[in-house]
Amino acid sequence: MNNRTTILETALAFFAAFGYEATGTLEICDAAGVSKPTMYHYFKSKQGLMKTILSENFEPFLERLKEATRYQHDLTLNLEKVLRAYFSFAAENPVFYRLQFSMQYAPLKSESYELVSPWVKRQRELIQMMFAQAEADHGNMRGRSSSYTTTLLGMINAYASDALARERELDDEMIYQARHQFMHGIFS
Q: How many CA atoms within 13 Å lie on the side-chain side of 82?
């Protein structure tokens, strides 16, 4: 493993365990076995390091999400694809998933929140566009794409966080349960 990868993996572990603001670059460098100049050679700053972690994890995920949200006049299928994209992402990257989740709910003026916000916004846009496109097929959905997006993302994060905390598998059964719950509510 090269220094850049070691620094990224160490920083991810520290940021996820202790928070971005509470972690210093010296702690990361010591744990990674590199000097501060080596870290700064690759990332220029702690913020640059976090931006790289976010980018390298979110960019491939957003490609998967973009494909999952491409509306094909079958909302049930799209919801399954979206859930599968998120649940696979969480299962494959549990440390990063927990980190980005905590950053989304950090204080609004915190650096953590400001760094993750553009990535969260892009996810919301993709999902909201899917719901907006579905309005043509489902008239009862008109004007609700924003609230559907909020509800779906909240549910996804709750399911994923619960599964990761309890070390439960985010499998096909959980995808079915989540999709059914979203589409039919608590009285189904």
A: 27
